[in-house]
Amino acid sequence: MPTNPTIGVFDSGFGGLTVLRALLPRIPGAHYIYLGDTARLPYGAKSQTTIARYAVESARFLEQRGADYLVIACNTATALALPEIRAAVSIPVVGVIEPGAKAAAAALIHKICHPEPSAKDLLSHPGDTTQSVLVLATQATVHSHAYRNACAHLGLHTTEKACPLLVPLVEEGWTDHAVTRDVLRIYLTEALSLSAPQAVLLGCTHYPLIAAEITAMLRTLGSSAEVIDSAEATAAEVARQVDISPLAETAPATFECFATDSVEKFQRLGSHFLGQPIPRVELLDLGG
Ligand code: DGL
Asked: Most-buried pick from 34, 53, 167, 242 (CB within 10 A)?
């Protein structure tokens, strides 16, 4: 791979900008091409065949556009189509699930060394000594059990909870909103009735935007579980793999964005996910 590579970042929509946001400071000197398949969002409720077709088309576009390295920022696409994507392109591909699972394992090892279970954790699950992770994700990701399998390889016990209402709430900009807190209360109460996790893995691009609300609701419900952001974990993994010349490390990263639907909406909503303005977005037609 060349030094100072061009890194393609793919997501079903705006959410993967949370991964780009984590990549920009970690790998300066790189050029990023971000593609949000907003016309076909959400992937989270679609079939494996459809998700694989959409993701492969997007991956091929990014490779043709000059990407030397591909980051699948979408949890759903990673969970359901990573082998198909890898087979369709000739550049290295990293998804979000393995880095997320590894980050959860690292957090749990840290917790084993510094255990501080809450009184409620101990009262509600007195015999539960397994180091367990709760994965919050879309319906499709949960049904694939990709996170459960990745965590099992690392010796972790996993409970998975589909949270389908969270993507539209975040897309609506309702990150700090009573309705979102009510929905979180319901999802997390259901999940915590099944296990007492030591870590909660955010297995969807949109959830980092409500990480503070998720943490606050866990505390309200008596859980001391640590919240793990797979966007950060993925950026750290990519930074380990790519080669940046020392000279370029001081140069700011550059990025260009493509969307398959309204560029105006992408700029407006996407800037919240990216944490900075998006000066220009190009409209791309990938077909139906
Ligand atoms: N990007 C998807 C994910 O991370 C969430 C949005 C969607 O369902 O397409 O799973």
From this structure: 34
Residue with tokens 């909103």: 177
Contact present, 39 and 230 (Cβ < 8 Å)? no
Residue 276: how many CA atoms within 13 Å on its side-chain side?
A: 9
- Gap between the Cα atoms of 283 and 256, Å rounded: 12
Amino acid in the structure at residue 101: A
80-112: per-residue pLDDT in tens? 999 999 999 999 999 999 999 999 998 887 666
DSSP 226: E
Q: Which ligand 1 atom is at minimum distance from the Cα of 204?
A: 4
Helices (H) then strands (E): counts for the chain: 12, 10
pTM here is: 0.90
Please list the active-site residues: 74, 204
Task: Work out the number of other CB atoms within 10 angstroms of the CB of residue 275.
Answer: 13
Question: 119: which strand partners?
Answer: none
Residue carrying the six token digits 């996407």:
270
**Token output for 250:** 């001081």
> For residue 76, which atom of ligand 1 is closest to its CA?
10
Contact 10, 33 (CB under 8 A): no
Nearest CA to ligand 1 atom 7: 42
41 lines ligand 1 (CB under 6 A): yes
93 Cβ below 6 A of ligand 1: no
pLDDT digits (tens, 9 = 90+) for 266-275: 999 999 899 9
**Residues written for the chain:** 288
